[in-house]
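Please produce the structure of this protein holding N,N-dimethyl-L-histidine.
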Amino acid sequence: MIETFKNEVKKGLEANPKTLPSKYFYDKKGDALFVEIMNLPEYYLTRSELDIFKNKTQQLIQTFDLKKDTYFELIELGAGDGLKTKELLKKLDSQNFKFDYFPIDISANALHLLKEDLNTAIPNLSVKTQQGDYFEVLDSLKESKKPKVILFLGSNIGNMTDDLASEFIYKLGANLLAGDKLLLGVDLIKSEEIVLPAYNDSKGITAAFNINLLDRINRELKSDFNLNNFKHQPEYDEKDGVAKSFIISTVEQSVEVKTIGKTYHFAKGEKIHTEISRKYNDELIEKIIENTDFSIENKIMDSKGYFADYVLIR
Ligand code: AVI
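Below is the modeled complex.
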């Protein structure tokens, strides 16, 4: 794990322009900062998808086309605190659907808390937490042959390039059977006035989330990034719908990363690209699933039209 981190940081800092992978945002501090981000007034994404799960639950259930006498599996990739999913689970439970809920997450702690919370909120619900890699868990669930609904929410797909997103969805399809469903939650392309503040909040939480990556490298790879000499900078291009986060070196400086055994030079104003947060429309989603085994069955939007949950069928 630490070897992979080291190699990816090395590769990123030696690239031109410099990059660092956003998946490394999520250490303990990064997880806590992301929870804060989801509660920020500017970060509309979580609230928008929650609106769908609260107010369009019946529509979601209808497009899943579930039979009350057939046991199925509801599998969530990156379940976190399950805030949105709980709305769906409550409805399914009250309507006497028969199913197991499999939340998959990297964090054993998040899964433990989620299970405790659900056991209290929905005592009848069968919760089978799965800690680990999405594809390893899906592979182990293949055997059951029960109909499956996969949830991949929160526009998490947007942190991948379109090629990687396509490959990811293709691989999901390879673990499913014909008729299985994938609920893909994505942020929609909209104006800069709405998107940019979501990645540049007034309290500076997103800035801390981005800069924490350098702090993590300092701690885990023994480097000497002076965090005061770097700042967070988001950019958003409304035409292509891609928000990008950068870390900018505010002075000319050199940084030694001891475990890599190298010193990296930064010019004043030089950027490190740390994240993409893609926004979508129908055309982009169609393109991404073009070479997968899925087709679009439905699209459910929040009341403001900010966010969409696409129901894809295998
Ligand atoms: C997890 N992911 C969908 C978030 C996003 O909106 O791209 C991560 C994030 N980065 C900055 N703020 C939130």
